[in-house]
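If your schedule permits, I should be very grateful for your opinion on a structural question. I have a record of one protein: its chain in single-letter code and its fold written as discrete structure tokens. Would you kindly read the sequence against the tokens and tell me how you understand this chain to fold? Thank you for your consideration; the sequence and its tokens are set out here.


***
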Amino acid sequence: MLIRRGRDVPSSEITPYETYLDRRRFLRTAAVGAAAALVPGSLAACNEAGGNEGAGGESTSGEAVQEELTPYEHVTGYNNFYEFGTGKEDPARNAHTLVTRPWSVAVEGHVAKPAVYDLEDFIAPHKLEDRTYRLRCVEAWSMVIPWRGFPLRDLIARVEPTASAKFIEFFTLLDPAQMPLQRTGILDWPYNEGLRLDEAMHPLTLMVTGLYGKDLPNQNGAPLRLIVPWKYGFKSIKSIVRMRFVEEMPRTAWMKAGPTEYGFYANVNPDVDHPRWNQDKERRIGEFRRRDTLMFNGYADQVASLYTGMDLRRNF
């Protein structure tokens, strides 16, 4: 089996995605919420967005919230993945061209143990966890998604960064034959992103291999992507083939494409608008109403200390 799990996941920890393919069925189930509070089950589990525990037993959730998971068909059918198209439905239509096996990941730069890993070897030493996180995109839409993966900090410990490592730069696969929009100049390919090392080491930062208990679909970043839940979605780079530990802050794909619109930090901040979108409100996919955007996407208690003393309007 390609992906080995470090523990069996009880059914109470994640709602089967079939339940959410039928919204009416969910609403009927929700009507028995009082019973679910007494009997552990899928509904009780999904009512806590991000309610699992991370490495070391600390809570990895944002504030306790009562939120429905975004239905599976929306999670897999409404995406940003510009390598396969600029429309939200394009990745689901076009990403079948991506071949995800075999796959390798290179770890380079200021580390004691650089290596090129087969995907199996990259994942195998790590315990995979199911964590439900909010995902907030800069276009002011959001989702709540049950991801499967392992904390990035576990991998960082494994490769042993040197004292010179201050940032990690990530790269998406570059293969125009599989990713047709890489034949255009819409972005400076390959897509790259980056994190400060302390952000990468935070227990919320996740290397993701699946969602809804299944392997990642191609359009969602198969076979390996990043999730940084307190940042806008473009920071959570997809289809990763290379990680480089560097001393200087990298210039990332969207910083190069629109430096006045997309900053390195990209923390969800309702007080700092994108030049073309207000950020104080968002629309959860599948809902008509708009809701208030939460500072750091609702994870302020966990991550605000990373930015003590920083001007978050300037460091957007």
In short: Residues 23-30 form the longest helix (8 residues). The mean pLDDT is 84.
